[in-house]
Amino acid sequence: DNEQRFRVAIEGARCGVWDWNPEADTVFVTDSLARILGLDAATECTGQQFLQLFSKPDRERLRAAMRGAPAGAEVDHEVLAARSPVWLQMRGRILPGGEANHTRIIGVAIDVTERKGAQARVAAAENRLRAALESMSESFVLWDSRQRLVLWNRKFRDLFDFTDGMLKPGMSYDAVEQAAARAIKTVHGGSEGKAAYEIELSNGRWLHYSDRPTADGGLVS
Predict the structure, then answer these.
(1) 191, pLDDT greater than 70
(2) Mean of the pLDDT values across residues 30-53?
(3) Left (φ > 0), alpha (ψ -120 to 50) or beta: where does 161 sit?
(4) Residue 104 pLDDT
(5) Mean pLDDT value across the chain
(6) 84-120 pLDDT, tens per residue?
């Protein structure tokens, strides 16, 4: 009953178990992990055969992690399967209470393909947003609900003469304002609580600057 419950839980979670013997350099792979990796059933293979089940760039990283585990390091890497577009998070540690002079490292491999796909979609959306912002002729800045810097475009950076690395996500509105002050000659019409005003820059350019609230309590400048 315990074994059956364990199997159902493992298969339902889209993960599997691996058991590596570094002395013999053999790896046992459970049924569920074998199927994820494109094998027919549970198997015991050599360490090299096990590594061949993953993409070339991941093999050496995984091998190095396995070698480091007996020295106290844990295995925790995301790797891509070689036979199918499946991402796995490999986590493992030394089995406590093993026989004297006999080390075993047991771990789980969790299917994180859906999460990786979601991360890729978010990254692609962010890249499209940044490309759109960089194509704007106006400067653009986004602040969160605590008035901390979220993102900005190159136009904003250039207008106020910010150098590379001067702006960082999480900077407060006041800190950015202070940093921009060296590029400003005069502010016209600016007052507490006013959403729009004009700025005369030290280089002779004039800007119409405005802040607008966002739905989540932040600001767009």
Answers:
(1) no
(2) 91
(3) left
(4) 84
(5) 87
(6) 899 999 998 887 655 555 678 888 999 999 888 888 8
Sheet of strand 196-201, all strands in order from the earlier edge strand to the far edge: 184-188, 196-201, 206-210
Structure tokens that stand for 121 in this block: 């979609």
| Residues in Cβ contact with 203 at an 8 Å cutoff, skipping those fewer than 6 apart | 183
> What one-letter code names the amino acid at 187?
V
Q: Give the pLDDT confidence score for residue 130 in this predicted structure.
A: 86
Query: What pLDDT sits at residue 213?
Result: 92
Beta bridge mates, 107: 18, 92
Nearest to 191 by CA among 169, 170, 209: 209
Q: Render the chain in DSSP notation, one character per residue.
A: -HHHHHHHHHHHTTEEEEEEETTTTEEEE-HHHHHHTT-SS-EEEEHHHHHTTB-HHHHHHHHHHHHHGGGTPPEEEEEEBSSSS-EEEEEEEEPTTPPTT---EEEEEEE-HHHHHHHHHHHHHHHHHHHHHHT-SS--EEE-TTSBEEEE-HHHHHHTTPPTTT--TT-BHHHHHHHHGGGEEEEES--TT-SEEEEEETTS-EEEEE-EE-TTS-EE-
